[in-house]
């Protein structure tokens, strides 16, 4: 879902009238102009006139026949203008920030019909008092003014998870706009703890992505409401992908489709194997501490040049203690060990949002253990949407993009402190 334009509005609901199809006379004389009549516009607007206890997440809905909305004006009870952004599908306008509780809003909507006639409807409604229901905490893993890799999924995490029956309502309040346009869809992790947004192919370098998670005051099921309204705009940088092969104990580093280097690695030993699958770099740390006290294999170790791949503590990092094993034997606690020099070099190449593919290890990557949006085909990803996928994005089974392919080409929870 994306906003293509912004309108300045005042609280609204609208109604309109149906059109009659044009008809032509069968007995017209030669040369007589074709006679035609057109139906007048018809519109239905929500909230209905006089509605009370409207959630502060309320928006102006319009159902138009035989015309289009040409003006929307929304004001509060003090006469101040309320800005709103139109939904891409034309079904309504979403205020640019949550409405205030216990306030009255008025909306005027003008519809211009195919006949040229116009209809204006006015509606007035009142929002509910501040909700006393507990809020579901949400985290938007897409910060503003950053540069991300081409596999960066827009990720929203929830605590507690969103029940299946409430996911469509939540998804309708999550908005993504890309410039240049590269449409995608949202897909839910099966337990409702995370939802991802991506396109069928990787983002094109240079793309600007603007995100809004407009959940404040949104009723979620019967017991909860959404917590906050968040926005962020960032860009996509160069195309970088890493491929790690357990059979060769090597990491291949690609940039813009070209192989830069092959680096020896040591992966997880048999008792703590590394996950195989398509992951995304989630965090980068020049220095951090792995502390697994309380686990079956407790240890505390300081590491440099660490890049997180999963919530459960799999990282790529410098491991000078295992340099003799790198390229030959797996000795880690599940992480990808590099020499200090190679880990330092890699930190200068990668970005949060770069794709990392690991293959040939003993265990597969679990759904939701990290940002796993690319660990499934587009066909399977689209099935995870709680709303219909736009016709132009209906999936067809395709081969997964090659790790060395240029992005956009053709074909082309609380984190664990563990590491190893």
Automatic annotation (TrEMBL):
Ranges annotated as biased composition (Basic and acidic residues): 26-41
Stretch list, region Disordered: 25-60, 387-420
Entry's Gene Ontology cellular component terms: extracellular region
Listed InterPro entries: Big_10, LD-transpeptidase, LD_TPept_cat_dom, Transpep_catalytic_dom
Residue ranges of every copy of the L,D-TPase catalytic domain listed in the record: 240-359
Single GO term (MF): acyltransferase activity
Active site: 317, 335
Entries under CDD domains matching the protein: YkuD_like
Keywords noted in UniProt: Acyltransferase, Cell shape, Cell wall biogenesis/degradation, Peptidoglycan synthesis, Signal, Transferase
Signal sequence residues: 1-22
Designated name of the protein: L,D-TPase catalytic domain-containing protein
């Amino acid at each position: 879902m994306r906003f293509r334009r912004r309108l300045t509005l005042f609280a609204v609901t609208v109604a309109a009238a149906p059109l009659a199809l044009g008809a032509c006379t069968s007995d017209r004389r030669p040369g007589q102009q074709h006679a035609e009549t057109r139906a007048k516009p018809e519109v239905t607007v929500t909230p209905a006139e006089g509605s009370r206890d409207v959630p502060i997440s309320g928006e102006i809905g319009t159902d138009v026949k035989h015309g289009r909305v040409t003006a929307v004006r929304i004001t509060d009870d003090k006469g101040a203008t309320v800005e709103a952004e139109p939904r891409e599908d034309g079904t309504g306008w979403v205020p640019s920030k949550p409405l205030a509780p216990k306030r009255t809003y008025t909306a005027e909507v003008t519809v211009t019909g195919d006949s040229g006639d116009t209809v204006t409807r006015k509606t007035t409604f009142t929002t509910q008092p501040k909700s006393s229901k507990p809020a579901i905490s949400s985290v938007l893993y897409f910060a503003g003014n950053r540069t991300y890799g081409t596999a960066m999924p827009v990720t929203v995490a929830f605590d507690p998870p969103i029940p299946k029956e409430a996911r469509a309502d939540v998804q309708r309040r999550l908005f993504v706009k890309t410039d240049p346009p590269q449409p995608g869809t949202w897909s839910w992790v099966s337990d409702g703890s995370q939802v991802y947004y991506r396109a069928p192919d990787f983002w094109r370098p240079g793309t600007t992505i603007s995100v809004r998670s407009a959940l404040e005051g949104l009723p979620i099921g019967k017991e909860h409401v959404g917590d906050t309204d968040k926005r962020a705009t960032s860009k996509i940088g160069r195309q970088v992908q890493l491929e790690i092969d357990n059979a060769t104990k090597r990491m291949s580093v690609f940039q813009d489709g070209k192989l830069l280097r092959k680096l020896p690695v040591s992966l997880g030993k048999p008792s703590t194997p590394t996950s195989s699958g398509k992951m995304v770099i989630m965090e980068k740390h020049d220095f951090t501490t792995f502390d697994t006290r309380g686990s079956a294999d407790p240890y505390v170790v300081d590491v440099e040049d660490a890049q997180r791949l999963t919530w459960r503590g799999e990282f790529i990092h410098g491991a000078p203690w295992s340099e003799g094993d790198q390229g030959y034997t797996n000795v880690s606690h599940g992480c990808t060990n590099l020499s200090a020099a190679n880990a330092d070099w890699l930190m200068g190449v990668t970005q949060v949002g770069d794709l990392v593919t690991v293959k040939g290890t003993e265990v597969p990557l679990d759904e939701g253990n990290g940002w796993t949006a690319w660990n499934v085909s587009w066909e399977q990803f689209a099935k995870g949407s709680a709303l219909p996928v736009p016709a132009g994005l209906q999936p067809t089974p395709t081969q997964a993009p090659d790790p060395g392919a240029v992005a956009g080409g053709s074909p082309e929870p609380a984190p664990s402190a563990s590491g190893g």
